[in-house]
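Ops channel
N.P.: pipeline sanity check, posting one input/output pair.
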């Protein structure tokens, strides 16, 4: 879908860092629960990190302690800071969003929960 633009992918050696960003000219991120997903070829898309409107976060076990999701409301930009990258982090990373609903806001890592998706950005980690 249009409206979400991811930047920041690239190639890095194991142990290195990258920061992904996701912005939009159509949507205001303060009105959306946001998440990052990743997908390898021939594999399903899996959730990496979630940030809800009220500031709650959730991380996949595989990235806890290494990745940090955050948001700069003034810049209307979502970030994923990735440290100590490993070859198994290699994937296409997607930004996802769903309009905030006070009665149904969850730190969900399920793809079905999100209604808006970016085009993805490739992250390659070499050993």
């Amino acid at each position: 879908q249009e409206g979400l633009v991811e930047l920041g992918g690239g190639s890095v050696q194991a142990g290195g860092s990258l920061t992904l960003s996701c912005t939009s000219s159509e949507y205001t991120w303060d009105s959306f629960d946001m998440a990052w997903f990743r997908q390898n070829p021939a594999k399903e898309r899996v959730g990496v990190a979630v940030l809800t409107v009220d500031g709650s976060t959730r991380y996949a076990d595989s990235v806890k302690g290494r990745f940090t999701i955050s948001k700069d409301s003034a810049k209307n930009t979502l970030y994923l800071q990735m440290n100590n990258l490993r070859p198994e982090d290699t994937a296409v990373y997607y930004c996802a969003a769903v309009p905030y609903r006070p009665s149904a806001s969850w730190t969900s890592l399920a793809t079905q929960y999100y209604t808006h998706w970016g085009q993805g950005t490739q992250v390659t980690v070499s050993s």
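N.P.: looks fine end to end. The first strand starts at residue 5 and ends at 7.
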